[in-house]
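Predicting holo structure, N-carbamoyl-L-aspartate bound.
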Amino acid sequence: MSVQLDAAGRLRHLLTLDGLPAPIVLGLLERARGFVHTPQARAPRGRQLEGRTVVNLFLEPSTRTRVSFELAARRLGADVVNIEGAAASTVKGETLLDTVYTLQSMRTDFFVIRTAESGAPASVAERVAADVSVVSGGESHLSHPTQGLLDALTIVQRKPDVDRLVVCIVGDIAHSRVARSAGQVLRTLGVRELRLVAPPELMPDDAEFPGAVRCLELDAGLADADVVMALRIQKERMATAEIPDRAAYRERYGLTGKRLRSARRDAIVMHPGPMNRDVEIESDVADGPQSVIRTQVANGVAVRMAVLLALAEHASAR
Ligand code: NCD
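Done. Tokens:
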């Protein structure tokens, strides 16, 4: 945690939302709002990152997050290099750190790192040059800070009084970095109630998500909820024997239009993607009037622009 703020308390790296001070969270959300545009409008552009280089080092598969970071960087004028999966030298035995040092020598200013290895983004952040910033693009099951921020932005756009909200997250919470980052930022923003709905084997440890209400049944979790976030079963993080039966899971935890009626009439429905339509979320719900799933994606670019700019200011203030 401490590595992500400098001595003056400014954002130096973005690795987790856990303990990130509220003024920084609010500042990033406010700045991101400035980049939100109507779907018809041209995307906002700036030249603030001209001459800077962003490397997207994605050691786990990703489409939306990687593209979102790429567009955010390009729209601010940065040069962008993408290194993904099998193309990464790490598969040739080079350590992540060696890859980072190599790219740093080519004058990289920002590393966006997605990795299945817990602790890797922080360990890189501790070792990069003083004017280089690291942003987590998703770390193991632990943290996905820009996703948490885009989820928070999407919620406050529709429902600004966070202290009145009941937010229900349903699905594979145990393996979800999205749920962890959402839980952390909602706590910082003072959410009234966070509910976690999952079968026991997909529920996180009791020590995690302090203050959250845990429900084994979806109807109980949905009752009068203002925000419902459905999550995918993260099969890639489970042994085959642990993967729940698809039909049984859908029956008990799938977010259907009928079930959604237990939530508030104006409840919004979220999903970080990728979705398994008609498993964790009914297709009609995903595309229905309560869904803000596409807004989440749009807000992702705005949030990542805000994060890159905040970090760039830190570097130039040095
Ligand atoms: C998620 C991720 O990779 O953490 N997707 C995303 O970034 N939008 C969630 C997932 O893979 O299910």
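The CA atoms of residues 268 and 290 lie 5 Å apart.
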